[in-house]
Amino acid sequence: MCETNINDCLPNPCMNGGSCTDGIDSFTCSCVASYTGSMCQTDVNECELSSSLCSNGRCVNLDGSYTCVCNAGFMLVNANSCNALPSSLSTSQVTVKITGQSLNGQILTYTSELTNRTSTKFMEYEVAFCYIFSQYVREQLGSQLVDANCIVLSFSQGSVVSDVQVELAAESQSVADGLAVSLSALSTNIDQNLSANGQTLVASISAEVQCDQTNCQNGGTCTSAGQPCNCPAGFTGDLCQNAPQGLSNGAIIGIALGVFGFVLVLITCVCCVFVQGVRRNQATKLMLAEERYVDSSRQNRGFYGNESFNGSEEYDSLEGRRYAVGQALDRLRGTDAQHHGDRNFKTPYVVDGSETYNGVERNPMHY
């Protein structure tokens, strides 16, 4: 008799978590906050409803909620308010280039709207590139990270390329700088899935730590804020945090040259000693040979007793030999007897006393 009412709430026609109330041939949806419409199908833009949201930042509407993109020096609290960073916290900044390929399965395409920060497309992509990425950073860097504030600097072509600035807050400057270096190490040229608030961004990441006047390590200098530090020789990394591995090329070359020079000097000294030894040996042999000859002449001919020996061939030969030996010894000493006419001897022998022999004055000489 058509006496039974059909439950129009089966299955639930209300969307986005709305609750259904059955009527007579009708139903009514009660929507959760942030959605409206007869079936709760429309997202409420909280940022348009209230201008007081997100002081010290910018309100960004999300599907079913909103979030704040805080200004530098402020941190996100409870996902929807920006509070000033406590003075006890220190910060370190990282610039990140995010090359997005797709968002929630849809291929990303650069449009002219992305040059306008107030456009719907810019804010939608800012959430995708910055909000999702900051959530990823919080997960990766762990409990030492107090906050990760992210701001989109610009969008450019190449699918859609976003340059974002991430400010990391921690309990001390050294911890903040360490977190910045850790974030830089997350850079990869391989696309990966970044997810937050039910959205998924497929993108590759290239991160670079920025310097200020305090965070350059190992003697590095910050000559241009917002860029990596200028590092002294041997140190590498955005903050010059990587110490030299082994000896530098300059040190190796210096050591090699030093060793080569030492060896060269050593060889030169050995050669000089050897040459001097050879010269002394030659002089000694000449002197011994003459002495043996003189002794033999004295024994066989009565050298000093036989005046007839004076002027003989043997005598002239002996005198010639003595003169040759003297010349050789003079040359060994670096002098030439032929160029010193004031010398009054032909040979360097030491003669006791003074005597005239063959017209030559012989005086005692000591070497």
UniProtKB/TrEMBL annotation:
Pfam families (alphabetical): EGF, EGF_CA, hEGF
Domain of life: Eukaryota
Domain EGF-like as annotated: residue spans: 5-41, 43-80, 207-241
Membrane-crossing residue ranges in chain numbering: 251-275
Entry keyword annotation includes Ribosomal protein: no
SMART domains for this protein: EGF, EGF_CA
Bridged cysteine pairs (disulfide): 31-40, 231-240
Protein name: EGF-like domain-containing protein
